Amino acid sequence: MARLKEFLPSRLNERSDLSVPRGAGPRMGARYDADAFGRFAEGLARFLGTGRFLVAQTVLVFAWIVLNIVGLVHHWDPYPFILLNLAFSTQAAYAAPLILLAQNRQDDRDRANIERDREVAARTQADTEFLARELAAVRLALSDVVTTEDLSDSLGRLAKLITDGQTANGQPAGPSASQQNHTRN
User: In this predicted structure, what is the pLDDT of residue 35?
Assistant: First the structure.
């Protein structure tokens, strides 16, 4: 019992730093980079999905069967080919989780891309709405501005008034300013 107490920590259930999860402290054993392992899994999944892998595997299986059927060499895996079956089972047992890991990483990347696309779309929509409001404000401001058409219409009316005010002989219809000054004197 005394030896057991040596191996147990003095405070079995008490932890001083609760911000670190239990078991997250330094441990003995191998550490690995999850991102590097994920890249390895993606590379392996890409390789397993190629025609080169399928052709190589087909050639290997064909050679395995031929060498174990033909009597030229020692039969290390006789007819039911149990060792070959075990190799395929092991390959499938490792390939499936690695392919799923690669798919999960791809899903994470897709999710991040979709989120970025949503942010860009929201900014684009906000910019479009701002520009629409600005364009409406410019249109309202321009509705009160005099145009060249308005000026030409006004000048036409003034010209008509001036021409209507003249007599047939080309003299103004009313007394001129110099005539009015002479009549006062």
Answer: 85
State yes or no: pLDDT of 28 exceeds 60: no
The confidence score (pLDDT) of residue 168 equals: 46
Would you list the domain boundaries of the chain?
A: 35-144
What CA–CA distance (Å, rounded) separates 35 from 102?
A: 11
pLDDT of residue 25: 55
The answer to whether residues 49 and 26 touch, using CB atoms and an 8 Å cutoff, is no
Please give the Cα distance from 3 to 9 (Å, whole number): 12
- The mean pLDDT of the chain is 79
Radius of gyration for the alpha carbons in the chain, expressed in angstroms and rounded = 47
Answer yes or no: are the C-beta atoms of 107 and 42 closer than 8 Å: no
Q: Which residues pair with 166 in a beta bridge?
A: 172
Question: How far is residue 79's CA from residue 65's CA, in Å, rounded to a whole number?
Answer: 8
Closest listed residue to residue 77, CA positions, set 91, 63, 90: 63
pTM to 2 decimal places: 0.46
Strand partners, 172: 166
